[in-house]
Amino acid sequence: MKTSRFKNSYFPVAAICLASAMAVFIVGNLFATANAAEAESEMSKDDAYAAKVWKYMEENKFVGQERMRSYPFVGNRPHGSIQESIPTEAIIDGHKGRLIVKQNYGGEGKLTPEDVYKAGENEYLEAVTIMFQRESGYDPSHNDWF
Known about the structure:
Blueprint lengths: L1 H7 L1 H50 L13 E2 L7 E11 L2 E11 L7 H6 L6 E8 L14
Antiparallel strand pairs: 1-2, 2-3, 3-4
């Protein structure tokens, strides 16, 4: 009988530990869900703002068919081996800021600025990188660049 009571005496402790672990798990998931929702909300704000920047660039021929071009130059990582860069100013949501639009090009073998300039607009295009300097306080640690 002593053996039986000894085994059963651990049951309440195990039940309390299990209940505590479940409570920590549930509360942790609630916080994680709240943080994920907040992050998603921030991301959707950024997505909406990015769409406004992109629309401005399309309307002003910085991207898309028949876009403005500058003379390509030899670049480096993380951007393309050949780049075009157009710095300008833009007004997005009533804020006037600096806008930099980079066309990043790459290809097989040794690509030169002349190859890119003579080719069709999108032949070697790998990515478009944009930077827009937002209002003071947006992201001070990165000079408010979006």
